[in-house]
Amino acid sequence: MLTTFALLGYAETGERLVAGVVPLNSAKTHVLLIQSTRRAGWVLPKGGWESDESCTEAAQREAWEEAGIVCKVDYDLGTILETRAPKQMSKEAPKALYQFYEVTVTSEETEWPEKHKRNRQWANFAEASEALKARPELLEALKRSTIAR
User: Fold this and answer.
1) How far apart are CA 84 and CA 15, in angstroms?
2) pLDDT digit string, tens, across residues 118-132
């Protein structure tokens, strides 16, 4: 059961709660990556969730806002604790506890909320692994998915 603390977007141990998706095509051969807005490179759609939505709803909302996709949740990939070094933490970017879901993209829209600041690209497992290597928690989510290797 979630506590009030968790409902405010933080775990009892202080980590920011983040919902994310590993968006796969229906054949499970490619994953959709999006450009990070904070640093160079590619990431998976993810973000905090509000107290009035479930974790899966938050993950699907983030997928829509950041990647412009409508998706169906297939699998719960579990939680992954962020592994950034303490010097990389800040009040604006505290350590995070990620909850990832494997999703199948059912629609890829041409207009979406963050289109003006993000590009997206499909990648196979090898390409995505290379693109996500600087973000161990995102790479771990990809490895937990059923994407063809």
Assistant:
1) 12
2) 999 999 999 999 999
CA distance 76 to 99: 8
**H or E segment to which residue 14 belongs:** none
Q: Give the tokens for residue 101.
A: 């879901």
Rounded CA separation 112/78 (Å)? 27
Rg of the chain over all Cα atoms, to the nearest angstrom: 15
62 in Cβ contact with 97 (< 8 Å) = no
CB 60, CB 47: distance < 8 Å: no
How far apart are the C-alpha atoms of 39 and 137, rounded to whole Å?
A: 16
pLDDT digit string, tens, across residues 75-110? 999 999 887 665 554 555 558 899 999 999 999 999
Q: What's the predicted TM-score (pTM) here?
A: 0.87
Instruction: Point out the least confidently predicted range of 39-43, 70-74, 122-126.
Output: 39-43
CA angle 103, 107, 109 (to 5 degrees): 125
Report the SS3 class of residue 125: helix
Coarse DSSP helix, strand, coil percentages of the chain, rounded to the nearest 5 percent: 25, 35, 40
